[in-house]
Amino acid sequence: MRFKVTIQNPDGSPLAGLDAAPGRTILEMALGADVDYPHGCRSGNCGACKSHLLSGEIEMSPYSEFALNPEEKARGLILACRAVPWSDCEVQPVDAEDAAIHASRRLTCRIAEITQATHDIRILRLDTLSGGPFDFTAGQYAQITFEGFPPRDFSLANVPGEDQLEFHIRHVPGGVVTGYVMDKSAPGDEVLVAGPIGTAHYRQGHKGPIIAVAGGSGLAPIKAIVEAALKDGAGQDIHLYFGVRDEGDIYLEDRLEDLAAKHPNFSFTILLSEPSGKTARRTGFLSQAIADDFSDLDGFKAYLAGPPVMVESCAAALTAKGLNRRDCHADAFYTEAEKYEEEIR
Ligand SMILES: Cc1cc2nc3c(=O)[nH]c(=O)nc-3n(C[C@H](O)[C@H](O)[C@H](O)COP(=O)(O)OP(=O)(O)OC[C@H]3O[C@@H](n4cnc5c(N)ncnc54)[C@H](O)[C@@H]3O)c2cc1C
Ligand code: FES
Q1: CA-based angle 335:200:24, to the nearest 5?
Q2: Residue 42 CA, closest ligand 2 atom number
Q3: What CATH number has the domain bearing residue 87?
Q4: What is the pTM of this model?
Q5: pLDDT (tens digit, 9 = 90+) per residue, 62-97?
Q6: Is the CB of 81 under 6 A from ligand 2?
Q7: Does 198 sit in the ligand 2 pocket, CB within 6 Å?
């Protein structure tokens, strides 16, 4: 039996009416019909596709509680990327008012420069050859395809409007694409960039304090968000926490120092979780540092990016200190295999 799925705009007007295909999720159907539905991971991990189920019945496949917590589920919220309709349905994306709407682009780019940031992170700068202009909001990500490899998600590290696109790519042990980037990619190579994607982006309208938390190459979108806010003239306090394992994993410290020297409202803390020797730096986990440093985060906006475990633990620490869940915007750096594991859990 075929069902009808109606997608509503925030003001209640109809955005699209779709004929449900058996077994397909609402997000798959919407994107298949070229409806600009908010989404990120497509695997129930990020919460970007969170939607109100206004009427009808759906079945949800497994998802992370970070993306949709029990209280939200009880209020009738669903994840469109996990929801398969079982009757005619009406849905309304939650984040629609808050979504960064940019044209979806497929760019052909050329690697202009590769810099060794750490032993396992490379910074790539790309020139756009065709397919632009590429508009995005700081904090969003793109899918990069290196020739002969499947696409992979990487966050934009530059502030929107700059000539070159910047990405920070960490080598995942055993990783096919990131291994290629480490060993074989070179300036002059052409790559495809598709995007922008994601809703863990900078919210310009928020005037309260900002806490920005990065683990490893999670500094890419967090740096973009912080720099976009400072470029905007944001006057509120901005605290950046950058967590890495050891001294050799720190990068762009000079740049952060430079920003702190120029902007009295910006401060940053670097944390080593597994220092190999004696260190004068602060040590420990980001989640503990946040819990120690703040007593009440009500009214703050938080942006997080990096390894999934770090993102989950920091999001929990932030909300335990009073951060409103709707003020927590996070991109957990799942690999494709981890997304798959989440799907079959
Ligand atoms: C929204 C988002 C933004 C991101 N932004 C960034 C960023 O800015 N910078 C960054 O460095 N990373 C980022 N990531 C993470 C990045 O996408 C992954 O690290 C990348 O996809 C890894 O690709 P790969 O081909 O090297 O690894 P893969 O080849 O996909 O392998 C990943 C891991 O899975 C293992 N594996 C492979 N196949 C299987 C299998 N079948 N079963 C079990 N294990 C398997 C591999 O051994 C390896 O350990 C982001 C991720 C997301 C979701
Ligand atoms: S797109 Fe649905 S949870 Fe990420």
Answers
A1: 60
A2: 1
A3: 3.10.20.30
A4: 0.81
A5: 998 777 877 678 878 899 999 999 999 999 988 655
A6: yes
A7: no
